[in-house]
Design brief:
The structure is a homodimer of 113-residue chains.
Chain A (H helix, E strand, L loop, with lengths): L10 E2 L10 H8 L2 H10 L5 E2 L12 H14 L2 E6 L2 E6 L1 H7 L3 H10 L1
Antiparallel strand pairs in A: 1-3, 2-4, 3-4
Chain lengths: 113, 113
């Protein structure tokens, strides 16, 4: 049984509190083609497994994709839920909208254009 | 007499055309504390000299500031006018607004917060 888990008993990997999300760190995290692709994948607000094949990143090694996911999570862009041996990633849309109003929508529109 | 100059006879340093401004490159350029500080300085839409003292960057070497200015210009964030031995930098607000609607305003609001 998890002692650090949420109601569901699942754990979350470390992430900054909303108030600690830093603009420079977010921009640096998103200033990379793979991570911007991940942002677009996560923009459906669903939880995504870490399997590169489900993210259109089949051409990258799993450890490379994991690295990019970690950068996004540590920047505060995503949250990662651990359920047993599985990890599920989701966009922190509400937190980003709170911290930087309008920024995420503008970024997603620009990235999708 | 300049052959590449604008009406005034001044030259511009190389910069991407508006349609070629790339989101990843812009985000990478702005994912740096000094360059984000420069963006805020340039947000008054005035031309600025390259003197670090006028930009609140007295603590940095002139060559370091020049490097950061070059990154911003090559990303398409700024334009640099050469007038004799002087260079003047200005934000490409209209070009950025055309390329990525809403993004610059959201970035400036977030950076100023």
């Amino acid at each position: 049984m998890n002692t650090t888990g949420a109601t569901s008993g699942d754990e979350r990997l470390p992430q900054p509190a909303t108030a600690d999300i830093d603009l420079v760190t977010v921009l640096h995290a998103l200033g990379d083609p793979v991570r911007l692709t991940l942002l677009l994948s996560y923009s459906d607000d669903a939880e995504h497994s870490c399997d590169p094949r489900g993210l259109g990143l089949e051409h990258l090694h799993k450890s490379t994709v994991s690295h990019h996911m970690r950068v996004l999570r540590e920047a505060g862009v995503t949250t990662t839920r651990v359920a047993g041996r599985n990890r599920f990633v989701r966009l922190r849309r509400a937190d980003l909208d709170t911290r930087f109003p309008g920024l995420l929508d503008a970024l997603l529109a620009a990235a999708a254009a």
